[in-house]
């Protein structure tokens, strides 16, 4: 019987120890929930990420400065964003790192976009009621398109060449913890902007906390059909679907308050706001986004370099998200080949976004990792279903536009809870670190503090190197200011440099995991979460030279007897 050795681990069917640890998850990465549950899990993940999916088209359509055509551009951007996010999510879950990760528009790209918007030749002087010539606003989208395609190719090459895999050997909890914490804190302003619009956001947060903390252990009897007989099965539905119940309850509450006239006409909690209705009315029933929908691709060196800075930040964020997702999924840290594929697939997703005119690249959404930590559902199948749903909603645009009717305060409540969980997941990585060492404590504290102080300083005192009238110098200044103003980038970078240069701790004391080593006494490495199914491994094993490809698992073929186990 054939089996396959990957690194130092073997895909063999062996009894898994520590069942009590694994029982914490209802579904692991390779598990398959029932179709109905998988669909509900997928919808739940979609609702959680809906804020990022909708905010991005709104911002880009405003930056385009399209005047009276803003609503039309917004609808097209919503459709494009949904389709691109769906494709990127499928690529990441099937060919990428193969954890339950959702890909969506990255906010790291908005810093260079805002800088681009302030340039005199691109400044918007039109109002929403002005008729703007089509060429005037499409040129902005084309320039973003060209910069995104160029920078995304660089990101793809970073993954395909194996550079990321080399770096992951040196990335430990003292890099991940400050990065994830600062990522959570970076979203604090957005959480406040959404939540402060109406008190219904507090109800959203309260309902979520009630379901997550107090009703998590409640067993609810549900009817099931088994062998043509109706049976009652106790299920902890509040643990599995807290976001669905919370958003459903509060959305219905807003709908009732809107229908009864209890909310003022300009209330952000209404479900029939003017801009929402404009998107719904303008959205066609069927529209397939396609490459080049804005016309010939343009190119601007400043935008390109700014997007390269955003790519660097996004890559660091994604590496942190990979490790965080592995942790909440009860998997070992991603091996080099998985990290390489993950970044490469993310880069390909960004290229697709550029070709279709999405405006910004994609990245791993950390709030969806928070959902996994709460629901204990780490199945990649659920995110694959989310990807399919996103594509369907993007093509049947009228249905996708329904997401725009979710009141913004409810989005704020969801973001607040999800981002707080992400910060907690980042801090939980520190239990692998020997925090009795003053070295580790100092590195952690300095990385967090510097990650907050440096961006604040840059915000108040932007860097100005050389003659500001020289175009190349202006581009360099913009690029440096963008990179230094991103909290998670600075905190993660400083933590990475200090952790790998300051002596005084072993790899074990630093919390570093060696690829292929046992995660605990007597426990074999779990490799099937990151590798391909056995039939794919079989094909890879037939070509020994493929083991040198940095984004493919090191698969070798050997013979074992049936007593040794079977392929899992």
Automatic annotation (TrEMBL):
Domain of life: Eukaryota
Main localization, broad class: membrane
Subcellular location: Membrane
Keywords tagged on the record: Membrane, Transmembrane, Transmembrane helix
Pfam families (UniProt xref): Xan_ur_permease
Keyword match Transmembrane helix: yes
Transmembrane spans: 43-65, 77-101, 170-186, 198-216, 237-263, 297-316, 385-404, 410-433, 440-458, 470-498
GO function term, MF aspect, one: transmembrane transporter activity
Topology class, membrane: Multi-pass membrane protein
Signal sequence range: none
CC per GO annotation: membrane
PANTHER family in the cross-refs: XANTHINE-URACIL / VITAMIN C PERMEASE FAMILY MEMBER
The protein's name in its UniProt record: Solute carrier family 23 member 1
């Amino acid at each position: 019987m054939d089996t396959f050795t990957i690194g130092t681990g073997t895909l063999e069917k062996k009894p898994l120890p520590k069942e009590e640890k694994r029982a914490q998850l209802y579904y692991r990465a390779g598990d398959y929930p029932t179709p109905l549950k998988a669909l509900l899990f997928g919808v739940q993940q979609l609702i959680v990420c809906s804020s990022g999916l909708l905010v991005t088209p709104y911002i880009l359509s405003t930056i385009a400065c399209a005047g009276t055509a803003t609503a039309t551009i917004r609808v097209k951007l919503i459709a494009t964003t949904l389709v691109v996010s769906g494709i990127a999510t499928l690529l990441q879950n099937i060919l990428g790192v193969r954890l339950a990760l959702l890909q969506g528009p990255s906010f790291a790209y908005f810093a260079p976009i805002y800088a681009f918007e302030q340039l005199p030749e691109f400044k918007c002087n039109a109002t929403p009621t002005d008729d703007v010539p089509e060429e005037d606003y499409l040129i902005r989208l084309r320039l973003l398109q060209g910069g995104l395609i160029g920078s995304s190719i660089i990101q793809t090459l970073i993954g395909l060449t194996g550079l990321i895999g080399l770096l992951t050997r040196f990335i430990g909890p003292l890099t991940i913890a400050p990065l994830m914490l600062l990522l959570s804190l970076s979203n604090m302003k957005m959480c406040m902007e959404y939540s402060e619009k109406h008190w219904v956001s507090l109800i959203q947060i309260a309902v979520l906390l009630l379901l997550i903390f107090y009703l998590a252990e409640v067993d609810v009897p549900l009817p099931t059909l088994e062998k043509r007989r109706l049976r009652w099965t106790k299920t902890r539905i509040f643990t599995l679907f807290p976001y669905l119940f919370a958003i459903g309850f509060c959305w219905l509450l807003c709908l009732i308050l809107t229908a009864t006239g209890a909310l003022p006409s300009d209330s952000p909690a209404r479900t029939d706001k003017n801009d929402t209705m404009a998107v719904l009315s303008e959205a066609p029933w069927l529209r397939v986004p396609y490459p080049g929908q804005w016309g010939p691709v343009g190119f601007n060196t400043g935008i390109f370099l700014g997007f390269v800075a955003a790519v660097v930040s996004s890559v660091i964020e994604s590496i942190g998200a990979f490790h965080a997702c592995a942790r909440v999924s009860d998997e070992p840290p991603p091996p080099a080949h998985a990290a390489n594929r993950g970044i490469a697939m993310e880069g390909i997703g960004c290229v697709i976004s550029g070709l279709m005119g999405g405006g910004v690249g994609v990245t791993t959404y950390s709030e969806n990792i928070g959902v996994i930590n709460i629901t204990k559902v780490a199945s990649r199948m659920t995110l694959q279903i989310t990807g399919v749903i996103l594509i369907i909603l993007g093509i049947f645009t009228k249905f996708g536009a329904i997401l725009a009717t979710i009141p913004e305060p409810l989005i704020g409540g969801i973001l607040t809870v999800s981002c707080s969980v992400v910060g907690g997941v980042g801090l939980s990585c520190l239990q692998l670190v020997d925090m009795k060492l003053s070295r580790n404590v100092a590195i952690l504290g300095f990385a967090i503090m510097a990650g907050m102080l440096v961006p604040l300083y840059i915000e108040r005192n932007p860097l100005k190197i050389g003659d500001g009238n020289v175009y190349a110098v202006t581009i360099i200044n913009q690029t440096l200011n963008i990179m230094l103003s991103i909290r998670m980038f600075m905190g993660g970078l400083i933590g990475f440099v200090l952790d790998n240069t300051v002596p005084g701790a072993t790899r074990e004391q630093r919390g570093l995991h060696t690829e292929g080593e046992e995660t605990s006494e007597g426990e074999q490495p779990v490799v099937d979460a990151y590798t391909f199914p056995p039939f794919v491994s079989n094909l890879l094993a037939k070509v020994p030279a493929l083991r040198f490809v940095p984004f493919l698992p090191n698969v070798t073929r050997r013979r074992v007897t049936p007593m040794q186990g079977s392929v899992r």
